[in-house]
Structure formats: structure tokens, C-alpha cells
Design goal:
single chain; 235 residues; 3 domains; 5-stranded antiparallel sheet; 6 helices
């Protein structure tokens, strides 16, 4: 089967002549200037538009663009020229202009709805003799989409179970780490409280030294007694 040209191209269009918008800070933008006023410069780069503040633009060098050529070639095609539109679609794709390539393919389908090249280029696939989108074909085959990928229900169920297991493991690790951190913090707080209590105790002892009362072997060895004459005596 003949390999069809891709619609979506990820390289920069190879335009030999184009409007070149040079920026003051650095770099430039190649394409076709479609709008320009005192505040904004809008450039059609084929797959979309880029708008930059006019204050950032250093100068603009005008030139012929591939978009100009696309429009000129499209204007020359007849309403029933299937091959002409397919050729133009291939050319636009090579230039990196996916929007224009898609437009040309849609022109082909408007003339020949079952054209295989245009259908495939636009992402359709053949299923039981009918052209359907890729998503429709997967669903018709019983596939389901999980995490951005098409897979069988069994594969999706296994993937879900694996993801659930991973989440449970991560949650358990998170809880264990949280509990360990809480224990460390509580121990630190307890040590700090103990240090504070010891400090307050030592400070209180410095301010209020203890008073010792006399006892056996402390102070006088005997107690005075009152004699018969009414006077105290050590005897």
C-alpha cells in the first residue's frame, strides 16, 4: 500500500522567501504579516498565528511566502480536480503547513468522499468497508482508553490495579513518614520542656536558698533548763 504523506509535520516550514519580522530582543519570525498596527504585528506561520507587540519589532522585511504560493496554486485548481488538490496537500505538508494540507484534503473529500489517501491523511481508518475515526475503530474492537492509551479491558483493569497499588504504597509511605516526623517533633518538644523545667528549678534555687533547721548534732550540744531559782541553766 502506498505510504501517504503526513498531515502533521513538526519541523519549521522551509520557506525561501517570506516576511521576516526581526525582534529587538533577539531572533525573528518568518511567515506572512497579515495584520499590523501601532500596537501589534500578527504573523501567519502556516499552522497558526503569532502576535507580537509592535514595541518589540525592530524591522520587517517583506517577501514572498509559501502561503502566497499555496493560495495561488489553490486558486488555479478546478472544483473537480482531485489529483490537483492531493498534490497541493502533499506540497503544503512538506512545507510544514498542516492547516493548509488538511484544507486541501477536505477539498478532495468534498469531491471524492471515499478517497483513501485523503481519508488516511485526515486520520480515518477503514473498518468493515466504512471510514471511521481512529477512536471509533478502537471502540468498535472493544478497546478502552486508559491514561491516554488504547488497550483491552483486561489490560486496563491490570493497569488500574497497578496504579491503585502504587497509590496505596505511596500513601502508606507518606503516613509512615508523617508519623515518624510527628514522633521526632514530639520528642524535641519534650526535651525542650524538660530543659525549661530544669532551668526554672535551678533559677528558683538560686533566688531562694534552702533553710536548714537544727537537729541532732547540729548547733548546741545540750539545751538549757530552768533552775529552781527561776534562772536558765545549761546543766
Amino acid at each position: 500500500m502506498k505510504k501517504l504523506f503526513p498531515i502533521l509535520v513538526l519541523f519549521v516550514p522551509g520557506v525561501l522567501f517570506a516576511d521576516e519580522v526581526y525582534l529587538k530582543d533577539a531572533g525573528s519570525i518568518s511567515g506572512r504579516v497579515v495584520e499590523q498596527d501601532e500596537t501589534t504585528v500578527k504573523v501567519d506561520i502556516g499552522g497558526g498565528f503569532i502576535s507580537v507587540p509592535a514595541a518589540r519589532v525592530e524591522r520587517i522585511e517583506k517577501g514572498r511566502t509559501a502561503l502566497d504560493e499555496y493560495e495561488e496554486r489553490a486558486a488555479k485548481l478546478g472544483p473537480k480536480d482531485v489529483e490537483g488538490w492531493k498534490t497541493l496537500a502533499r506540497w503544503a505538508s512538506k512545507q510544514g503547513y498542516s492547516a493548509q494540507a488538511r484544507e486541501a484534503c477536505q477539498k478532495v473529500l468534498a469531491i471524492a468522499p471515499d478517497d483513501a489517501d485523503a481519508r488516511k491523511a485526515l486520520g480515518f481508518v477503514s473498518l468493515d468497508g466504512k471510514w471511521v475515526t481512529l477512536e471509533e475503530s478502537y471502540r468498535a474492537k472493544g478497546y478502552v482508553k486508559y491514561d491516554g492509551e488504547w488497550m483491552t479491558p483486561a489490560e486496563a483493569q491490570a493497569a488500574q490495579a497497578a496504579d491503585a497499588s502504587d497509590r496505596a504504597k505511596r500513601n502508606a509511605e507518606y503516613r509512615a513518614n508523617a508519623e515518624q516526623n510527628a514522633a521526632v517533633q514530639e520528642q524535641a518538644r519534650a526535651e525542650k520542656r524538660a530543659e525549661q523545667e530544669q532551668y526554672e528549678k535551678e533559677k528558683a534555687e538560686q533566688l531562694n536558698p534552702p533553710v536548714y533547721w537544727g537537729g541532732w548534732g547540729y548547733g548546741a550540744s545540750s539545751w538549757p533548763t530552768m533552775g529552781t531559782d527561776g534562772f536558765w541553766s545549761d546543766k
